[in-house]
UniProtKB/TrEMBL annotation:
InterPro entries: Bact_solute-bd_prot1, SBP, TAT_signal. It comes from the Bacteria. The keyword Membrane does not apply. PROSITE patterns: PROKAR_LIPOPROTEIN (PS51257), TAT (PS51318). SUPFAM superfamilies: Periplasmic binding protein-like II. This is Extracellular solute-binding protein. Residues 1-27 form the signal peptide. The keyword Aminoacyl-tRNA synthetase does not apply. Gene3D superfamilies: Periplasmic binding protein-like II. Keywords: Signal.
Length: 448
């Protein structure tokens, strides 16, 4: 799920074999989540039976994810008489403060909570006992989720502590009318070099910029880094000055130097830039379609989607921006029912397709992407089956490493972006300095 603000990576996501949860016997071991500073693992969930599904659950979420939970919960209640699901929309602005307070204090958390993938990785690093270990039950789904999303639901030891919900496969949205006016074929953009050349042609013939970037908190650098199979960290070491990182930043600097970027401030500025046609393309995630169809209805038929340009011909043509998980907190007294509800929501193709249709949540659950609905043409996109375009890209999203220091890395990278893109600083010197700052702040080594 994506909210109307810049996130770190918004939803990005490991383990092996077990019997079906529907027929196994549930066992829960361990203790409730400890307070701040605890480093022991959380309790384990070992199996389930339909007889154990009873009682009440409280679920925290926000925005369209809360809407989806509220819409589907009555069907779970119908299947399990006596069970009541209370979905609380805690609002995005307060969500992580509330979750952090609950993890630190060891009390106050619900049975289940929504967490964005990269944020979940931060919580796992700082509060490893805060969530149930679902490895034994989730093993049956190994290989059935987007690998990148599955990674964000797991820790660095391979334990699965959540199920992935939605994912954010990336492609290139483009304005058909402006590309046509400039004589640019979007299907010819095989590499980022092609993209830059097309931008120069579009600017010369239409006066339009090629893309929009947030001048304060833009995540395109990370999108480009993940496309190359890397995040901010590698093997626990700081990697923001690697050769791949430099290549990503040099691409952004080139776009800046050629005057192809329209700089905007925040979500509203980004939307306005695209809506008014100041820029003609957007390397963005599947959920951007929902913004176009709801906030730019007058532009129906004027947008198309192609895979991202690759860094090298034949290379990876997607990345990720977004994704969330549902996790069972260690503070629940009803873990059996909590797992059953998570499974109902996220491991059911029908429910996942329903959430794509109704709330625009793009499934991380691969069986859902085989549904005929995914291949239907979209009137808004001129008859193009855009969901199919994204579905074909999902398995190619490179999984990357996350750590508990992702927020600090993002903060420093945003500062690096500003230095390079707004003030024209040298990409290599800037990234070397950023790596040194991040290493100092996190007591980590810099990857060689």
């Amino acid at each position: 799920m994506q909210t109307k603000r810049t996130q770190w990576t918004r939803r990005s996501v490991l383990v092996a074999g077990a019997a079906s949860a529907a027929t196994a016997v549930l066992g829960a071991s361990g203790c409730a989540a400890g307070g701040s500073g605890t480093k022991k693992n959380g309790p384990k969930l070992a199996g389930a039976s339909s007889a154990a599904i009873k009682g009440n659950l409280t679920v925290w979420s926000w925005d369209v994810a809360a809407t989806a939970l509220k819409r589907l919960a009555p069907e779970f209640e119908r299947r399990h008489p006596g069970v009541k699901i209370n979905v609380v929309d805690i609002g995005y602005d307060n969500a992580y403060d509330k979750i952090t307070v609950g993890l630190k204090s060891g009390k106050g958390l619900p049975d289940i909570t929504t967490v964005e993938g990269p944020r979940f990785q931060s919580f796992l690093g700082n509060f490893p006992s805060g969530f149930y270990d679902l490895s034994a039950l989730a093993a049956q789904y190994n290989g059935k989720y987007d690998p990148a999303a599955w990674r964000t639901a797991s820790d660095d030891k391979g334990r699965v502590l959540a199920l992935p919900w939605d994912t954010g496969p990336c492609a290139l949205y483009y304005r058909r009318d402006h590309f046509q006016s400039a004589g640019v074929d979007p299907n010819s953009l095989a590499t980022w070099d092609d993209y830059v050349k097309a931008g120069e042609q579009i600017k010369a013939k239409t006066g339009k910029k090629l893309l929009t970037l947030d001048n304060a908190e833009d995540n395109t650098f990370l999108l480009l880094l993940q496309q190359q199979g890397q995040g901010y960290f590698q093997g626990g070491k700081v990697a923001v000055s690697s050769a791949k990182a430099l290549r990503a930043m040099q691409l952004l600097k080139t776009l800046r130097d050629k005057g192809l970027i329209d700089f905007a401030r925040g979500w509203d500025g980004y939307v306005t830039s695209q809506k008014t046609g100041k820029s003609v393309s957007a390397p963005y995630a599947a959920w951007w379609s929902g913004t176009l169809t709801t906030e730019m209805k007058e532009l129906k038929g004027k947008f198309g989607v192609v895979p991202l340009p690759a860094f090298d011909a034949g290379g990876v043509r997607t990345s990720n921006n977004g994704g969330s998980v549902l996790t069972v907190t260690s503070q629940t007294s009803n873990a059996q029912t909590a797992w059953a509800f998570v499974q109902f929501m996220l491991a059911d193709p029908g429910n996942q397709v329903s959430m794509l249709k109704e709330e625009g949540l793009f499934p991380a659950y691969l069986p859902a992407l085989q549904d005929p609905y995914v291949s239907q043409p979209s009137d808004y996109f001129g008859g193009q089956p855009v969901n199919k375009t994204f579905a074909d890209l999902v398995k190619s999203i490179p999984p990357i490493e996350y750590t508990k220091d992702g927020a600090k890395a993002n903060e420093l990278v945003w500062a690096a972006n500003a230095g390079v893109l707004l003030r024209g600083k040298d990409p290599k010197k800037t990234l070397d300095s950023t790596a040194e700052q991040l290493a100092s702040a996190t007591s980590r080594e810099i990857a060689s």
